[in-house]
Design goal:
The protein is an alpha+beta fold. The protein contains eight helices and twelve strands. The chain folds into two domains: 87 residues, Arc Repressor Mutant, subunit A; 131 residues, Beta Barrel (Elongation Factor Tu (Ef-tu), domain 3), CATH 2.40.30. The chain is 38% helix and 28% strand. The strands form three sheets. It has a six-stranded antiparallel barrel. A three-stranded antiparallel β-sheet has the order 1-3-2. It has a two-stranded antiparallel sheet with strand order 7-8. A hairpin with a 4-residue loop joins strand 7 and strand 8. The chain is elongated and about 85 Å long.
Length: 229
């Protein structure tokens, strides 16, 4: 089922609830429902059939109209919608932000840092994947993206602890789960090193993002950064 179909079903369910069908059996004609939905009567009838097939309503057809009752499963879907809207309206920060940057070749040190064993073990434990040895570097070019990136620092992050070896100290790393180009899951990592300013973001993933997404220097890439609940 496509996302468009899913929202169509939820919207129809919402309109049925507005007519009381979540609390009692309501008599609703397809003509009246069609006006409520802003669709044809044929489409309204099809929506009801689809909802019934999904088990979200029980329906009995009479000459005067349909007797419709939203099932427990249907009420559950409405409660999910309510919870999502409540979260969006009440949370202090958005559930995700989108950044766009331009791919560029970095200093080549990403592989060194990502593969340090104390870092790598924590990436696997806290992010759920063993990162490819290297980072994808993106240069943020608009004021909007740079400002949005700076706001991200105020949101909760997955903390990767720093460590020391006999030669040097490795600082802590903040990670934010991310979806790159709506295709690959990974994470935005902050403060792996301090060679770049705030206009650069670095991404890690269990795969080589350049190869997997066929990226070259100069390509624009969108990154959806997920904030934590």
């Amino acid at each position: 089922m496509s996302e468009k179909q899913s929202w169509r079903h939820i919207y129809t369910l919402l309109k049925l609830a507005e007519m009381g069908a979540h609390r009692r059996t309501a008599k609703i004609s397809t003509e009246f429902l069609a006006r409520k939905l802003g669709v044809s009567q044929q489409s309204a009838s099809r929506h009801l059939i689809e909802l019934e097939h999904r088990g979200w309503i029980k329906r009995t057809t009479t000459p005067e109209g349909c007797l419709i009752k939203i099932t427990d499963a249907g009420v559950g879907e409405l409660k999910k919608l309510y919870a999502s809207l409540h979260f969006l309206m009440e949370t202090a920060y958005p559930p995700s932000i989108t950044l766009e940057g331009v791919v560029f070749t970095g200093l080549g040190e990403g592989a060194y840092y990502v593969t340090r064993d104390p870092y790598r073990r924590q990436f696997m434990e806290k992010l759920g994947f063993n990162p490819y040895p290297g980072t994808l570097n993106l240069k943020l070019v608009t004021d909007y993206d740079i400002k949005t990136r700076s706001e991200l620092e105020a949101y909760p992050a997955i903390e990767i602890e720093g460590f020391k070896n006999e030669n040097r100290t490795f600082g802590p790393v903040k990670c934010y789960p991310a979806i790159i180009e709506n295709k690959a899951k990974g994470a935005l990592v902050s403060a792996l090193r301090s060679h770049y300013d705030s206009s650069v973001i670095e991404l890690i993933a269990p795969i080589c993002l350049r190869k997997h997404l066929a990226l070259k220097d100069g390509h624009k890439v969108k990154v959806e950064v997920l904030t934590l609940p």
